[in-house]
Amino acid sequence: MSDSGQKTENVAAVLKVFGVLEALVENHQSGLSELAQRAMTSKATAHRLLQTMIDMGYVVQDPETEKYGLTLKLFSLGARSLDEQRALMRVADLAMNQLSRATGESINLGILDERDQRVVYIHKYDSHHALAMKSTLGLRNPLHSTSLGKALLAWRPDDEIRQRLARLVLTKIAPRTILDREVFYADLVASRVRGYAEEIEESEAGVRCMAAPIFDHLGRTIAAMSIAFPLFRFDEAKKADTVALLKRVSREASEALGYRPDLSRGAEPSVSTLAR
């Protein structure tokens, strides 16, 4: 079988599995015929899928009615995922509130879209000023043109950085968007060294942003926070204080999630190891 044929078959199998799961979520208990119809497959295939789910602990069969239902294992997975997201949002909100009160500028929280190599904006504090950068929750921006993207990438393991860079499409978004992979990689190295990422008119004309990473208990960058300034309102004399505050609150958020610097797994990236 060709690779494309195998991929098509794998996708079809996944669709059948989720068809069964969705039917069980909606109906609580269902018979084999109903589940096979919902998954658009034969009874024999549906039966094999269900037996695998039973063996894995996700499905149980009533011995009297012979109907199938979900166990609490799937709920447990979802609950654990929600707990992690709630914990991130809770600690990030405290940090973002401090940044908002201290600067009055737009504060954004972003996470990495693992599939499309983009930053997803999941929380924000709008600027206190009428003229300011406006962001939208759910917005997905390119990694290479944003300080959030740089902060999410710079502290990743070196091999992962090189792999992601090889897949990135460096398109021009604003007047100063970085379009050279070597230059971009050097910027990531510099970001890690100084402890924060920065971009000036790389994602939007007239806007300057600074971002710092948030780590989980394993030392992985799971999010990043940024401050966005209109260039005309950025005070260079206050930059050091602003950076110190940004780094402090991001560190406190990380520590609230169980991060300890000595457990960080990322190796210092080297420009010489840039994948070409």
What does this structure look like?
The protein has 276 residues and is an alpha+beta fold. It has 2 domains: 3-71, Winged helix-like DNA-binding domain superfamily/Winged helix DNA-binding domain (Arc Repressor Mutant, subunit A, Orthogonal Bundle); 81-273, 2-Layer Sandwich (Beta-Lactamase), CATH 3.30.450.40. The chain is 46% helix and 18% strand. The protein is built from 8 helices and 9 strands. The protein has helices at 3-27, 32-38, 43-56, 73-103, 147-154, 158-167, 181-194, 239-256; strands spanning 29-30, 59-61, 68-70, 106-113, 118-125, 140-142, 197-200, 207-215, 221-230. The strands form 2 sheets. A 6-stranded antiparallel beta sheet has the order 6-5-4-9-8-7, sandwiched between helices. Strand 2 (59-61) and strand 3 form a beta hairpin. Helix 2 (32-38) crosses helix 3 and helix 5 (147-154) crosses helix 7 (181-194). It is elongated. Residues 264-276 have low confidence and may be disordered.
Write the layout of secondary structure elements.
Elements (H helix, E strand, L loop, with lengths): L2 H25 L1 E2 L1 H7 L4 H14 L2 E3 L6 E3 L2 H31 L2 E8 L4 E8 L14 E3 L4 H8 L3 H10 L13 H14 L2 E4 L6 E9 L5 E10 L8 H18 L20
Antiparallel strand pairs: 1-3, 2-3, 4-5, 4-9, 5-6, 7-8, 8-9
Helix pairs in contact: 2-3, 4-8, 5-7
